[in-house]
Design brief:
Strand order of the largest sheet: 4-3-8-1-2-5
Distance between the termini: 30 Å
Low-confidence stretches: 183-194, 206-211
CATH topology of the largest domain: Rossmann fold
Number of domains: 2
CATH class of the largest domain: Alpha Beta
Helix content: 25-40%
Mean pLDDT: 78
Number of helices: 7
């Protein structure tokens, strides 16, 4: 840990206290990783980012490698107790010359780590997604894959810590499989203790075959609800959060062009929300 600090600056030691695969064996591996920090001075907020630091490799030419993940839990207690939080980690591979693949350093490190192992982290870092101050705000959350991890934390924060939330909360997400285990509108879901069934609804778009584009991941969930999304966006209390695969914003824009029935009307609506600070994005390749 001291060596990491000398190279990268302030680092916090966390302990891996839970690791659970949430996808079936025949699909991409996604794990829910739970980390604990015993430092009473460590605090985080829902939706913030955590940097995970692992040993580097000859391929990267660096002593250490870092990747940031969205915290998929509500805010830390803030009363001196130990802090625990979840990360959603997909075992990633990078394409190399010749068509081969090499393991993603951080994702494989986390997926292979055993309970009790120390994990070096940095942060937390700010997130573009923040729960609005007014409790009658509407939230439209749109994401693909593990990009929806930040939304999980925000939803917990809204319903567990901000009682009496009056706005409508909608989650539209695409995944190959497995992510539905976190967002089903059923009593068995892990959010059943948090969300308000009258205001929160989640719409999944699971794919039975590899998607050809981001549009394929999102279209089934959004198209059948496009009119409600469009109507909510006309309300000055509505915020839009986009997270996940690269070009997700373009895929959403294509679908909303149809709902608005006019490219100019759609562009004006989006610009209005952006100017009001009610449009936030976090995308990755």
């Amino acid at each position: 840990m001291a060596a990491i600090t000398r190279v990268l600056g302030p680092v916090t030691e966390a302990t891996l206290v839970g690791t659970t695969r949430i996808t079936p064996p025949d699909c991409d591996e996604v794990r829910r990783i739970r980390l604990r920090v015993d430092d009473p001075g460590f605090h985080f907020s829902a939706g913030q980012l955590i940097g995970v630091i692992v040993p580097g490799s000859k391929l990267t030419g660096r002593r250490f490698h870092t990747r940031r993940y969205s915290i998929a839990s509500g805010a830390s207690p803030g009363d001196g107790r130990v802090a625990e939080f979840d990360l959603l980690v997909r075992r990633c591979f990078a394409v190399v010359d010749g068509g081969g693949r090499r393991p993603g350093l951080v994702s494989h490190y986390l997926c292979d780590a055993a309970v009790g192992e120390p994990i070096a982290i940095s942060g937390p870092f700010p997130s573009p997604f923040r729960v609005p101050d007014r409790d009658d705000a509407n939230l439209i959350m749109i994401g693909t894959g593990t990009g929806v991890a930040a939304f999980r934390g925000l939803i917990q924060d809204i319903y567990a810590r901000k009682t009496g939330w009056k706005g409508q909360v909608r989650l539209y997400y695409g995944a190959h499989t497995g992510m539905d285990l976190l967002y089903r509108n059923e009593e068995t879901d892990d959010l059943a203790n948090y969300y308000d069934r009258q205001s929160f609804k989640a719409f999944r778009a699971l794919m039975s075959k590899p998607p050809e584009s981001d549009r394929d991941l999102l279209e089934p969930a959004i198209r059948s609800n496009a009119q409600e999304i469009w109507e909510l966006m006309q309300d000055g209390r509505t915020h839009v959060f986009l997270a996940g695969l690269h070009r997700i914003a373009d895929a959403f824009e294509d679908l909303m062009h149809e709902a608005a029935m006019s490219a100019s009307v759609w562009n004006e609506t989006r610009a209005w929300m952006q100017q009001d600070g009610r449009w936030s994005e976090m995308v990755y390749s």
